[in-house]
Write a structure and sequence with these properties.
Blueprint: E1 2-6, H1 11-14, E2 19-21, E3 26-30, E4 35-36, H2 53-63, E5 71-77, E6 80-85, H3 87-97, E7 103-105, E8 108-110, H4 117-125, E9 130-134, H5 137-147, H6 156-163, H7 167-176, H8 184-187, H9 199-209, H10 213-220, H11 227-243, H12 256-263, H13 270-281, H14 292-297, H15 313-330, H16 336-339, E10 355-359, E11 374-378, H17 379-384
Parallel strand pairs: 4-6, 5-9
Antiparallel strand pairs: 1-9, 2-3, 3-4, 5-6, 7-8, 10-11
Length: 388
Amino acid sequence: MNTRLRTDISVADICKGFVYNQLEGRGLFGLGGKLTIQPEYQRNYFYSEGGGKREAAVIRSLLRKYPLGVIYFNKVGEDKFEVLDGQQRITSIGRFVTNKFAIMDGGNPKEFHSLAADQQALLLNSRLLIYECEGEESEIKEWFQTVNIAGVPLNDQELLNAVYSGPFVTLAKTEFSNSQNPNTQKWSAYIKGSANRQEFLERALEWVSKGDIGGYMSAHRNDSNINELKTYFNSVIDWVSSLFIEVLPEMKGLEWGRLYETYHGKSYDPKKMSQDVKRLAADDYVKSGKGIFEFLLGGSVDTKLLDVRVFEVPVKRVAHAKQTQAAQAKGESNCPLCAAGHSANKSRIYRFEEMDADHVSAWIKGGATTADNCEMLCITHNRAKGNR
């Protein structure tokens, strides 16, 4: 790959013909139409997030004559370029010069047109340090990943978007990486993250590919539609939203793709599921609210998913002492299940550390985690006993 250092391009040059798509939240063109600011392998613009501290910092750096860092252009044709690294900074500059946001100056918010004439001139005349790169696609993509190690690193999905850029990624990002898509509000109830940082797209790809995102993107890189991706994603979301009527905070970020694959073929009563969710969510003994949904989908069997509050050690010691005293008087094991059996442990007295507590009346059937419902079993029987 060939590179050439350029110091002849100013902020004013970059901002000629600057186009920013407010709907998609992305800078499109600059340098009089010669520069594509956000090619498909680039991440979405996010410097405006968090109150816009990052984009304001870019402008303050220029006004204070601080170095802005190296920017890389990829030469794609005669006098045609795309931003290889630096699109967040360039978009911040273009947005400010076109009065899309304000910075604080002397305690007052000021857009570009509100700055003093000398400040405007200082900003527009600032020269940028730019390396112009030219090479094969594989070289450019490798370099893109390398230069993005610094600063805010690309996440895994952003890197995959760069590696497999093409019509499929373009369409997928239009659907899943567009923060203005009205469906994102519904999706955010079940998926952690944001459209801008590609989390919705990542989940959609993870679900349809059963975890092999890179393989799926490679196979579909040149597809002219994303029908399979959209259909599968919507199937998962529709299944969840129809099955669990109330949306709870604990639903966000669960492995809905895996749960869909495992359970969507089974029949459930949404009304009963809703009642059970409410009951378990209000149960003080349930420590893991996130486990409620898989617990119910699995037939209310695996209580480990709920991390049900266990008996306190003092309660268990009292139960152990009481059972041991009664067992010794009868000449049988202090584990009730061993005592009722016919093994060599029928009369064995277990030490405290060889036993664990169990609910006499199963918790799932309404039994409380209280002293009068505590029974000590040997560890073998405790682990073997179901529906605890």
